[in-house]
Amino acid sequence: MKTLLLLLVATTLYGQPDFKSVISAIKAGNTAGIGAYMDANVEVTVGDKDGIYAKSKAISVVSDFFKEHIPSNCSLVHSGAARDEASYYCIGNLSAKGAQYRVYIFFKKVGGTYLIQEMRFEKE
Predict the structure, then answer these.
(1) C-alpha to C-alpha distance for 84 and 4, rounded to whole angstroms
(2) What is the pTM of this model?
(3) Where along the chain do its domains lie?
(4) Do the Cβ atoms of 63 and 46 come closer than 8 Å?
(5) pLDDT digit string (tens) for 29-74?
(6) Which numeric CATH code is attached to 17-123?
(7) Angle CA(99)–CA(101)–CA(87) in degrees, nearest 5?
(8) If DSSP states are collapsed to H, E and C, what string results for the chain?
């Protein structure tokens, strides 16, 4: 019984992206922490600026956003999965420099690991 419970917990913890770590990295303005979860190319939208960038450029775009809009808090609001569980998303609320932003992050399974494919920061 203990083995079955452990297996169920492990599947639950490791069978989806690490939303909490990504949200914590956003809250801290830690772009290296966010970058650890990015795929080789990531679509990033910050206000009116959007594009598909190589990982290093995507990190730079998010870093520039955080320099202008220093995060003070970020919380996970909702998360979900596609039916086949090959992709997941999460939605968060970011407080930064007196403004509120909706954060949307899309993950896709790549080689057994869920990696960020898209990030959006939209002012509310």
Answers:
(1) 23
(2) 0.85
(3) 17-123
(4) no
(5) 999 999 999 999 999 999 889 999 999 999 999 999 999 999 999 9
(6) 3.10.450.50
(7) 165
(8) CHHHHHHHHHHHHHCCCCHHHHHHHHHHCCHHHHHCCEEEEEEEEECCEEEEEEHHHHHHHHHHHHHHCCEEEEEEEEEEECCCCCEEEEEEEEEECCEEEEEEEEEEEECCEEEEEEEEEEEC
